[in-house]
Amino acid sequence: MSYSDINQFSQQCIRQVFTACFLLTGSFLIFNHVVFAHGVVHQRIDELTAQIQQSPDNTQLLFERGLLYADD
After folding, report:
1. What is the pLDDT of residues 8-21, one digit of tens each?
2. Do the Cβ atoms of 62 and 52 come closer than 8 Å?
3. pTM of the model
4. Rounded to an integer, what distance in angstroms lies between the CA atom of residue 59 and that of residue 49?
5. Eight-state DSSP code of residue 56
6. Could you read off the pLDDT of 53-67 as tens digits, one per residue?
């Protein structure tokens, strides 16, 4: 193997690593709402559960929590 072959191979490896990092970063930026959306639903369910404990006869709160469970 000559020096130019090694240089060409290393440049190709660097290019592939850069491409992979670029694609992973882009994918995260595009799909991060999907990853973090699940936590928001659970947080809202917990908030409604606390409100239901304060007002157990409030059917609107029960209905809203039921919808969130259905979405989850």
Report:
1. 888 888 899 888 87
2. yes
3. 0.49
4. 12
5. T
6. 999 999 999 999 999
> Which residue matches tokens 């969130």?
68
- Which residue in the block uniquely carries the two structure tokens 């990092």? 21
Query: Tokens representing 26?
Result: 């882009």
Burial 18-56 (b: 16+ CB within 10 A, else e): eeeeeeeeeeeeeeeeeeeeeeeeeeebeebeebbeeee
Residue 62 CB burial class (10 angstroms; 0-12, 13-18, ≥19): middle
Helix/strand/coil (H/E/C) assignment for every residue in 5-42: HHHHHHHHHHHHHHHHHHHHHHHHHHHHHHHHHHHHHH
Return d(Cα 21, Cα 9) in angstroms, integer.
18
